[in-house]
């Protein structure tokens, strides 16, 4: 999944490769297969760097967020805004999860109405 052409990082690497090729007049015989292989190799190298860096960045952000949240009684305006956004979004997430749970519960308990169940899966 990481090394597929639909990957966003792969698309960016391919875009930069083509742009550099045009910018520096490297229009010699590079077949699309060779270009694809070069982009995949670059993607593998970048992924080995970016995935651990992204995980570390996320952990540092989460730790900093929780530290700033818990260190003072009065939050700064940025933290107040973030807490308000989280408090605003949580009910929507819970509602969507409860609706899905409710729909699956209805489907499982109404086995007599098989036509309506089959019509839900029809495109």
Q: Span between N and C termini? A: 27 Å
Query: What does the average pLDDT come to?
Result: 75
Largest sheet: none
Number of helices: 4
Overall 3D form: elongated
Return the structural class.
Answer: mainly alpha
Low-confidence stretches: 110-123
Q: How large a portion of the residues is in β-strands, by DSSP E?
A: under 5%
The helix/strand series, from N terminus to C terminus, equals HHHH
* Helical proportion, percent range: over 70%
Output the radius of gyration: 25 Å
Number of strands: 0
Short description, anyone?
This protein has 123 residues and is mainly α. The chain has helices at residues 8-23, 32-71, 77-109, 114-121. Helix content is 79%, strand content 0%.
Quickly list its features:
0% strand, 123 residues, elongated, disordered C terminus, mainly alpha, 79% helix, single chain, 4 helices
Structure overview:
The structure is a single chain. By secondary structure, the chain is mostly helical. 79% of the residues lie in helices and 0% in strands. It is built from four helices and no strands. It has helices at residues 8-23, 32-71, 77-109, 114-121. Residues 110-123 have low confidence and may be disordered.
